[in-house]
Design goal:
With 66 residues, the chain is an alpha+beta fold. It is built from two helices and four strands. The protein has a single domain, classed as Alpha-Beta Plaits (2-Layer Sandwich). The model has no long low-confidence stretch (mean pLDDT 96). It binds iron/sulfur cluster. The site of iron/sulfur cluster (SF4) has 16 residues, from helix 1 and strand 2.
Length: 66
């Protein structure tokens, strides 16, 4: 089952780690104050998982694609 990452913006502290590790998928908006997914398939799942594991507040999760 394909899956895609999403950021729970209520938990994101805008640290920028996900964008540093996986810039093809995550983008930190300093204006908005949180990170968003700009391209859910912009990197291999392993790289996305690294960003998920590195998020200090656990704000990135997988969701099944419809
Ligand atoms: S690593 Fe987590 S807390 Fe940091 S910007 Fe990304 S989603 Fe937000």
């Amino acid at each position: 089952m394909p899956r895609m990452p999403y950021v729970d913006i209520s938990e994101c502290t805008a640290c920028g780690t996900c964008e540093e590790l996986c810039p093809g998928v995550f983008r930190l908006s300093e204006e908005l104050g949180y990170a968003t997914v700009i391209a859910p398939h912009g990197a291999a799942e392993e790289e996305i998982q690294e960003a998920i594991d590195a998020c200090p507040v656990g704000a990135i999760r997988w969701e099944e694609e419809a």
